[in-house]
Design brief:
Helix content is 9%, strand content 41%. By secondary structure, it is mostly beta strands. The chain has a domain of 258 residues. The strands form two sheets. It has a 16-stranded antiparallel sheet that branches. A two-stranded antiparallel ribbon has the order 1-2. The longest helix is centred in the first third of the chain and has 12 residues. The N terminus and C terminus are likely disordered.
């Protein structure tokens, strides 16, 4: 008789990290209904919580992302005594590290940052180093894991769109501009558009597409979120809000109160998801970028996403007093030098035939290794790209 057990503990870390990255948490302003951090209520899945059987962490992993079949432990019974036969999968890849220096005491920035925008973002790969934790809130006890030490962001391209075509179809139908306006290439100034792809593990990514105005638009200049695409194990989720969401007010000094307390929101009616954002440029701050002190603007961003397909709506994002921050150089291609995330993703999954809620708490800081990007196609962590096979297709990372 043969029995199979789940993967050993050393296989759990990358799997749990993958589970935590199943969806990108986008959210908004503080929830008027106090959510708070609490133990997941089993009565959402069971009528009688006292009779609910315990749910093993392995069941969560197996249900959410699927169990690996290349690593198994088998037991075989013999006539005299059982002999354990262990069949192991391939060893994990060696840990990749990257040296990051620390700025000397008393170091100051070589140049001052400005709130005005000079140029669009630079295309390329941006290596980053991270510190912090993510917590998977499951029964019988939460699982706390360190975030990956190294990661990368990519800006694959920068383009320019006219303001009239920047409207989505529903907004255009509502405004009903005349054909001369819709087809006029000079009626509106061009709006720069770019995407940022955040990668933490192969097969998992979040791509945010932004547009921005910078020449004194009516109502102020803003960085707009146009679309968010999340990919997890080949499954793609698209969030395209109406209207595009004003993420950050531009061309304002630190401490400016014009946008303080204002909530900007948009809804994707195809997916019944809504995002609300409240942001403010709160201060100036120096950031240590691997030994170089960099002057930045510190932007506070509170996000909350509502899944309107649930009743009541399921809320994720910044809960209670939690807040995200960007340290950004507006005059250097709106470069996000450092990102601090303190956010919660709330979802649910089927475990043992029961619908059980799951919460993933993100609390980490991600900082650039250098201000100038590496060329597109650079593999993970800055090594020289391998030669491409002739006649073959390029595989995605």
């Amino acid at each position: 008789m043969t029995r199979r057990r789940s993967a050993t503990t050393r296989r759990l870390l990358p799997i749990l990290l993958a589970a935590a990255l199943l969806a990108s948490a986008c959210g908004g302003d503080s929830n008027p209904v106090e959510i708070g951090f609490r133990r997941i209520a089993l009565d959402l899945a069971f009528k009688d919580a006292e009779k609910a059987p315990p749910i093993a962490s392995a069941d969560v992993i197996r249900t959410v992302i699927g169990a690996d079949d290349d690593f198994e432990v088998e037991f075989e019974e013999e006539s005299e005594a059982p002999v354990r036969v262990v069949r192991r999968g391939p060893p994990p890849p060696p840990r990749v590290t990257r040296q990051c220096d620390t700025a000397p005491e008393g170091a100051t920035p070589e140049r001052v940052a400005f709130q005005s925008i000079k140029d669009p973002p630079k295309v390329g790969v941006y290596p980053r180093h991270n510190e912090g934790t993510l917590t998977i809130d499951v029964v019988p006890q939460p699982i706390v894991l360190p975030v990956p030490e190294l990661s990368r962001w990519e800006i694959p391209q920068v383009s320019f769109v006219r303001a009239n075509v920047a409207l989505n179809e529903e907004s255009e139908a509502t405004l009903n501009p005349p054909a001369q306006v819709r087809d006029n290439n000079t009626a509106y100034a061009d709006m720069p558009q770019f995407s940022i792809t955040r990668r933490l593990l192969p097969g998992y990514s979040t791509t945010d597409t932004y547009r921005y105005t910078y020449h004194g638009a009516t109502g102020g200049d803003f960085l707009y979120l146009v679309k968010r695409v999340s990919v997890a194990r080949g499954v793609e989720t698209v969030f395209e809000p109406t209207p595009p969401i004003r993420m950050v007010r531009l061309n304002v000094p630190e401490g400016d109160m014009v946008n303080a307390g204002v909530v900007h929101a948009g809804v994707d009616r195809k997916t019944n998801m809504a995002l609300a954002v409240q942001s403010q440029v709160v201060s100036r701050e120096w950031v240590d970028v691997c030994g170089d002190m960099i002057d930045t603007y510190r932007v506070q961003i509170k996000e909350q996403v509502a899944d309107l397909s649930q009743s009541p709506p399921r809320l994720s994002g910044n809960e209670g007093d939690t807040t995200n921050y960007w340290n950004i150089q507006f005059d250097n291609g709106l470069l996000i030098v450092r990102e601090q995330v303190d956010s919660t993703l709330r979802t649910s999954t089927k475990i043992a035939g029961q619908d059980v809620p799951i919460a993933v708490h993100y609390k980490y800081t991600s900082t650039l290794d250098q201000l100038d990007p590496l060329p597109l196609g650079t593999p993970a962590f800055g090594a020289a790209p391998p030669p491409r096979p002739s006649g073959g297709d390029e595989d995605d990372e």
